[in-house]
Sequence to fold (200 residues):
Amino acid sequence: MPAPDETYWILDPEQISCLASAPRMTIIDRLAADGPMSVDDLARVIGMKQTAMYHHVHKLESVGLIQAAERRLMPGARKPQTLYATPAPRMRLARALNQKQHRETLKRCAVAVLRQAERDFADGFALGGIHEGPERNHGFFRLIARPDAAALAEINEHLQAIADILWRSNTPTGAPVALSWAMAPLSDDTDPRTQEGPTR
Fold:
């Protein structure tokens, strides 16, 4: 289990609303994974114009999702750059899912996650460096099933274990990967007596 100060639980409505944005989620994820970075660093790593990056960084800082960590003077520069960091290495929205007042905003957050996953998947083809087998780093999966309570508990344990592996696997020599997942209950109206059949 992580130490209490390693996890930042995002529950504030302004913070959740701020994260209903794929670029801002990506900034949070990169800072949590890679440590303090400047706006210039983030723009280069994420592939975004600096002007747009300043806007997103300001938004995140104003709600407390990132903070100034240190300052760095680059060779030949007149003034130092601010390096930003997340309040903790593990930034989590999971507890907000249990609070009804956040549902509409969390729907927008989920859309942002899945839109970014679409971009990440497409970028994977363009960037190359795709591995198969035990070191597979590119793929997708969707399955509909009917797990009982015990199976759901096991699935959630595995999802948490995967997240833990990713958090503790951050190394300077590792290549960055993004993993996104979504699980949702589906309609269970499968009784053929409730279906409209052909009229005679």
Notes: The chain has a mean pLDDT of 91. The CA atoms of residues 120 and 181 lie 13 Å apart. The domain at 4-168 is CATH 1.10.10.10 (Arc Repressor Mutant, subunit A). The chain has one domain: 4-168.
